[in-house]
Write a structure and sequence with these properties.
The chain is of the alpha+beta class. The chain has four helices and twelve strands, in the order αααββββββββββββα.
Length: about 300
Amino acid sequence: MARENQREDTYSAPLRRLLVAVLVILFLAIFLVWRIDSPRVERFRSAVLDRVIPPMDWVMTPVTGLTRIVSDFQSYQRLVEQNADLRRELQQMKAWREAALQLEQENAKLLDLNNVQLDPQLTYITGIVLADSGSPFRQSVLLNVGARDGITDGWAVMDGIGLVGRISGVGQETSRVLLLTDTSSRVPIIIQGSGQRAILMGDNTRNPPIEFLEAPDQVRPGDRVVSSGDGGVFPADLLIGQVALGTDNRLRVRLSADYERLEFLRVLRSQPRERIDDPGNLLAPNAVEAASPETMEAPSDG
């Protein structure tokens, strides 16, 4: 056995060396042929490629497919990155859109506040709504103006169009607005057209009912409702809303103020009314003297 192994090693070793030498010479020849810049060599290379490449298509097919898969995967990665970038930009655009809409709404409300025609003797303070009562009916809201701004309890509050409520509670820097929809709200009103006076009573709904109406038959849906000024609760002729017929067949008021978006409110400075302690002094002194018996002269006998 040892002799046979020695014989195999004696023949295989030279064969391996010869094979390696032939391969090295072949590779060198191919390298040289491929690098030589000569027209004849170029024709030879073209002939070799024409003979070798077409039959080798089936060998190159997996390589070509793998190359395409890698290229598609890279394209997919780029698409994923671009999609993520577009999503981020879309979120930013949505945020900018919301900010633009809020600014547009605030601008519209401020323009409405500037265009409302009020009594020229009434001055006002504009405040921003900080919070509401948290109830689904929004019975009250909190403003960022208070005693330091001269706010007094009981003053009327409006948005850009109509009456919202009145001040009910004043702090140093904030004040509470009791809305017309609150159950404790009572506002004397005039229904224009018929000229009837009534009371608008809050009932925690968006369309408070009209009570104490003398002749309901004379009132029509769509009639304008304004404050009457009776009792000194509100100044007169402040727009409240329009008459509407509720589902319960009661006459109600569709409020003009936008209770869905109370952001800027106008607090009207009500001028204090002169207090009358002695109604008799309202008569002119000359008229009193003229009507008194002491000043009347007896007729002469002539």
